[in-house]
Design brief:
It comes from Hydrogenovibrio marinus. Keywords: Elongation factor, Membrane, Protein biosynthesis, Transmembrane, Transmembrane helix. This is Elongation factor-1 alpha. GO terms for molecular function: translation elongation factor activity. With about 250 residues, the chain is mainly α. It has two domains: about 150 residues, no CATH class; about 70 residues, no CATH class. Helices cover about 60% and strands about 0% of the residues. It is built from nine helices and two strands. The protein has a two-stranded antiparallel ribbon. Helix 7 runs antiparallel to helix 8. The termini are close together.
């Protein structure tokens, strides 16, 4: 048995433990909210609640049997308009989005059910304008390359910071084999790359949609293990290894 320094979770001071705990709890809540957001956006791409391979395919490769507008109205936007109005919009898009029907028939529906967000919130297409909505009345080819680049760089920069600090805190746990600990710290980064790379692969070939699900599941599971293990060792784990100076733990050398 070798004596470790103070830099391990069970021996941290109370203020540092509360700092780490607050960060881990908020991060865990953020991961739950991210999962809920995925269920309410990508998870509704096929019109059914719950994430499936079809949801991933429709989100990135597209539902190339219909228009983008139809895919949205049967998917994530399904609850925002009554069935008859949605059918009218879908049929208009299937007919080639004729401008002659825009002012008398289509624009009133869009103004009533879509304009409360579209055209008022930044980053959302201004659908009450004919020149904008006609772009969505075309065959659905999924997410555009520009939107994927924008989301990908946010994911890679932002989420990697989350994984860095979660991994840093977890690296202070005791009782782990160093190779197991190092693997757990590295897994979220590896699966994040798999997740983002598979968006592009799915855009090219829908068979790669499974890798999106595998990537998200992999980094979520590893992060959950690290968060709960860290919280356990800070607050619940018995202090049977505590030394007489009350600031040092004895653990097996890794």
């Amino acid at each position: 048995m070798d004596k470790t320094s103070w830099l391990n979770l069970p021996s941290l001071s109370f203020p540092v433990k509360t700092l780490f705990t607050g960060y881990l709890m908020v991060t865990g809540l953020g991961l739950l909210m991210a999962g809920a957001q995925i269920m309410l956006t990508h998870g509704m791409a096929d019109g059914k609640f719950g994430l499936s391979v079809n949801d991933i395919v429709y989100s990135y490769y597209g539902n190339q049997t219909g228009t983008t507008l139809e895919a949205k109205l049967n998917g994530s936007m399904k609850m925002n308009a009554p069935p008859q109005e949605r059918f009218t919009l879908i049929q208009w898009a299937r007919d080639g989005a004729p401008k002659s029907e825009w002012e008398p028939k289509i624009k009133p529906i869009v103004d009533q059910y879509c304009a409360k967000c579209h055209g008022k919130l930044a980053g959302i297409p201004d659908l009450p304008k004919y020149d904008v909505i006609k772009l969505f009345a075309k065959v659905d080819h999924g997410a555009t390359e520009a939107s994927m680049v924008r989301v990908a760089h946010i994911h890679l920069f932002g989420i990697s910071f989350i994984f860095f600090f979660v991994g840093l805190i977890f690296s202070m746990t005791v009782g782990w084999n160093r190779w197991v600990k190092g693997t757990l710290v590295f897994i979220p980064f590896a699966f994040l790359v798999v997740d983002v790379a598979s968006w592009w692969l799915t855009k090219w070939n829908p068979e790669f949609a499974w890798f999106v699900i595998i990537g998200g599941f992999g980094y979520s599971l590893a992060s959950t293990i690290m968060i709960f293990t860290s919280l356990y060792q800070m607050w619940i784990m018995p202090w049977r290894g505590k030394s007489s100076d009350e600031n040092t733990w004895h653990v097996d050398a890794a």
